[in-house]
Specification:
Helix content: 25-40%
Number of helices: 5
Structural class: alpha/beta
Low-confidence stretches: none
Order of helices and strands: HHHEEHEHEEE
Mean pLDDT: 84
Radius of gyration: 21 Å
Distance between the termini: 73 Å
């Protein structure tokens, strides 16, 4: 009887430990470290700030056993000008991704949300620029199905920038 109880306790603890391994965040240092890394590493281009571009870019990439990044795919972007800074920052994350020991590679989807810090007094000129950017934007959309298989959706990364 004691043996059965000890076996059940051991299996429960093992399952709990396995579940904790499954739920660990895949970026070295956790979610906050990932957000801070992108806040420090993502350089918003002058083109984005001049056009006052806002929107979302959804990127899929593959991380290998060494934490290296490969196969970067743009699934969606509100404007094409939002994509290049994200790709440049993703390339800087080499060797920072953590995947399960039994995988050779793992796919991740990560959304980036671009907004500007509004000035104290927003005039009609700012409203016109934002509207003009919206009308002239060049969105990127996946034209076919998106195979997700064993893909992990990461939390969105906010990208806030100041206006010139």
């Amino acid at each position: 009887m004691k043996r059965n109880i000890l076996t059940v306790i051991f299996l429960t603890i093992s399952a709990y430990c396995f579940a904790q391994e499954q739920l660990s965040f895949p970026f070295q240092g956790g979610k906050e470290a990932m957000t801070q890394f992108f806040r420090d590493s993502l350089n918003v281009s002058q083109d984005i700030t001049q056009k006052k571009a806002i929107g979302t870019a959804v990127i899929k990439f593959t991380a290998n056993q060494n934490g290296g990044v490969s196969k970067i795919v743009v699934y969606y972007a509100d404007d094409a000008i939002l994509v290049q800074p994200v790709i440049d920052a993703l390339r800087k994350t080499n060797h920072k991704w953590i995947i399960s020991a039994n995988e050779k590679a793992h796919d991740f989807i990560i959304p980036f949300v671009f907004t500007f810090n509004p000035p104290d007094a927003a005039g009609s000129d700012l409203q016109k620029k934002v509207y003009d950017n919206y009308r002239r934007r060049n969105p990127i959309m996946a034209k076919d199905q998106v195979p997700l298989d064993e893909t992990t959706l990461l939390p969105p990364v906010p990208v806030n920038y100041d206006l010139p």
